[in-house]
Specification:
The chain is mainly beta and 474 residues long. The protein has 2 helices and 32 strands.
């Protein structure tokens, strides 16, 4: 009698659980823009969500600890004149976030550690170079201040945010709309998907397509792709019959897929979130009410289905916490921030263990906040793997570093092309300092007002007690 052999894996029992009511963020008007981005970005300090805004585009930034009902007058970040389509936190500075918009610009913002009392309207730097809406952002994984943007003009631009300069522009590599862009582990290559149904691997510094595969998925719906830690490419797309499908590819041999699996007939684009430490990829479909997760290994069949987390309500978007923001004492291996129509709730993935000790096998050293290269070093051809940190004692964030723009934005030299005039980086820096000083003063005034009010209430209470005492003696 043959006995079925069960595959050995420490991730066979990953357990997903929605956060409790007191851990959610309530009363948030999530953006209704029809764009296939995650609409949410999270890091160990802040949660950022693209929200509805009148007369422009805005996103809201909340400290992670500020759960519960969000004040309807909570300040937003709103310098764009068109809807915000994508946001991404800098991996090397937890206070810096970039936003891309339909107004063709990319803006980079420094978020203060205290809660501002007014909307943040002055970016550190505005990056202008696209001729159509910008819908994709991605920071370089190892080089400081290097940011990639992709727009409706089918162009990928790589910027040095520290100087406001355009480092590279890939103008001729895509004949149609770009659907997704992903860096590999050390940031030496890009993989992109495009409306022309072609999956490309690009060396951005040479401006060359290193490898490409036409119709990795035969359907016409958008495709997504991410690099794995082994250098393979995991893709999600649609079959010719509009069934959702996932695939794993070796860029050195694009002829045949390493794995190809049909899934279901839903029409939502599957957003892949890949964790290189565990080799798990989580698939979150827009409009779905579930998260499927698979383990990617080096042995056939390479992609192994693990489980599905299901809930009642569909997701509008999803944020994925970096590994250093997780609670290692609870064996938490992933945390998502699921956007509903009016709220955001955390979804926690854990591997149950009986021991309270640090689990070395679940938490290998993971990329930390220190960059391995400067922008100029990367541009000159150097590559370096991420600087790793241990999570054994939990992650302690470094002190907030201020991002300073050191040169005038070279794009400012051009004459203004429309009603928007670009502001020089030095002016922006000065006005930002003024704004911070003003906000600090307003915070102090608010604090003093609260203290005076508290003292008045105390005096009133003491007077009432005194009157009662005098009446009692009479």
């Amino acid at each position: 009698m043959s006995r079925r052999v069960v595959r050995q894996s420490k991730f066979r029992h990953v357990f997903g659980q929605a956060g409790k009511a007191e851990q959610t963020y309530e009363d948030i008007r999530v953006s209704k823009v029809t764009w296939d981005s995650s609409f949410c970005a999270v890091n160990p300090k802040f949660l950022a969500i693209i929200v509805e805004a009148g007369g422009g585009g805005a996103f809201m930034v909340l400290p992670l600890a500020k759960t519960g009902r969000v004040d309807k007058n909570h300040p937003t970040v709103n310098g764009h004149t068109g809807p915000v389509l994508d946001i991404d936190w800098c991996p090397h500075n937890d206070s810096v976030i970039a936003s891309a918009s339909e107004d063709t610009t990319v803006m980079v913002w420094q978020i203060p550690d205290y809660t501002p009392v007014r909307n943040i309207t002055e970016p550190i730097v505005t990056l202008e170079g696209h001729s159509k809406r910008v819908g994709i952002l991605s920071w370089h994984p190892t080089a400081r201040n290097v940011l990639l943007s992709a727009g409706g003009d089918n162009v990928i631009i790589i910027w040095n945010v520290g100087t406001g300069e355009m480092l590279l522009s890939l103008d001729d590599t895509h004949p149609d709309v770009i659907h997704s862009v992903c860096w590999n582990t050390n940031g030496s290559l890009l993989c992109t998907t495009c409306k022309d149904k072609t999956l490309r691997v690009i060396d951005p510094r040479k401006g060359q397509v290193v490898a490409e595969r036409f119709a990795a998925h035969e359907g016409m719906r958008p495709m997504r792709a991410v690099f794995t830690r082994q250098g393979h490419i995991f893709t999600t797309g649609f079959t010719r019959m509009s069934q959702r499908e996932l695939g794993l590819w070796d860029p050195n041999n694009f002829e045949e897929p390493m794995a190809l699996q049909e899934m279901d007939t839903s029409n939502g684009v599957l957003l892949p979130f890949y964790d290189p430490d565990s080799g798990i990829v989580y698939l979150c479909g827009k409009g779905d009410s579930s998260i499927r997760y698979f383990e990617i290994t080096e042995e056939p069949p390479f992609v192994h289905y693990l489980n599905t987390f299901s809930s009642k309500e569909p997701q509008r978007g999803m944020g994925f916490m970096p590994k250093r923001g997780l609670d290692v004492s609870k064996c938490e291996i992933a945390r998502f921030y699921k956007l509903h129509e009016r709220k955001c709730e955390p979804i926690i993935m854990t591997v149950p263990r009986k021991s309270d000790l640090f689990q070395d096998d679940l938490y290998p050293d993971t990329p930390g906040p220190e960059p391995a290269l400067e922008a100029d070093e990367w541009l000159s051809g150097q590559d370096a793997d991420p600087v790793l940190i241990s999570l054994r004692d939990g992650y302690v964030p470094p002190k907030s570093r201020e991002l300073r723009v050191t040169k005038r934005n070279i794009l400012d030299v051009r004459p203004p092309t429309g009603p928007r005039r670009s502001q020089s980086a030095s002016d922006a820096s000065f006005s930002q300092q003024q704004q911070q000083t003003l906000e600090t003063l307003l915070e102090e005034i608010k604090s003093l007002r609260e203290r005076v009010q508290a003292q008045e209430e105390r005096i009133t209470a003491l007077e009432n007690m005194l009157c009662e005492f005098v009446d009692g003696t009479d």
